[in-house]
Inverse folding.
């Protein structure tokens, strides 16, 4: 799982309605479900998105603000970042990322660099390498 968030102290102004609209612009039949939560868990939006022929699922939250994709390769995560930058994240706003393994290993969030797609994939793979060699093997396949 990759998790994308605004840098600390900033916001993207993320709302479920705006994210839903962006997803439905791509595909009017896209899977979208908003789960209302209580005071402890809060609400979340579960969604599907197809990028470059790959079907992905993820979650979004407005508090704390962030968007994740589940069971994703570094290549698919790079495609997703491109879509986020073009359709969700305000122009000029910074983005950070982490992975489930990075969060479990207490790795800090890292800035998503504004580089070419191959270099972004390399940055995601470098993050995975920092979480341990067994993760990299499974991430490449």
């Amino acid at each position: 799982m990759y998790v994308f968030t605004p840098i600390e102290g900033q916001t993207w102004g993320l709302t479920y309605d705006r994210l839903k609209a962006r997803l439905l612009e791509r595909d009017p039949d896209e899977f979208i479900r908003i789960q209302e939560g209580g005071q402890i868990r809060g609400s979340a939006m579960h969604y599907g998105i197809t990028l470059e022929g790959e079907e992905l699922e993820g979650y979004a939250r407005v508090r704390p603000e962030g968007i994740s994709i589940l069971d994703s390769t570094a290549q698919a995560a790079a495609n997703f970042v491109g879509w986020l930058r073009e359709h969700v994240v305000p122009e000029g706003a910074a983005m950070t990322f982490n992975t489930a393994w990075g969060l479990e290993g207490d790795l800090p969030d890292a800035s998503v660099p504004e580089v070419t797609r191959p270099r972004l994939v390399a940055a995601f793979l470098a993050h995975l390498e920092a979480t341990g060699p067994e993760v990299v093997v499974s991430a490449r396949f």
The first strand starts at residue 2 and ends at 6. Residues 135-141 have pLDDT under 50 and may be disordered.
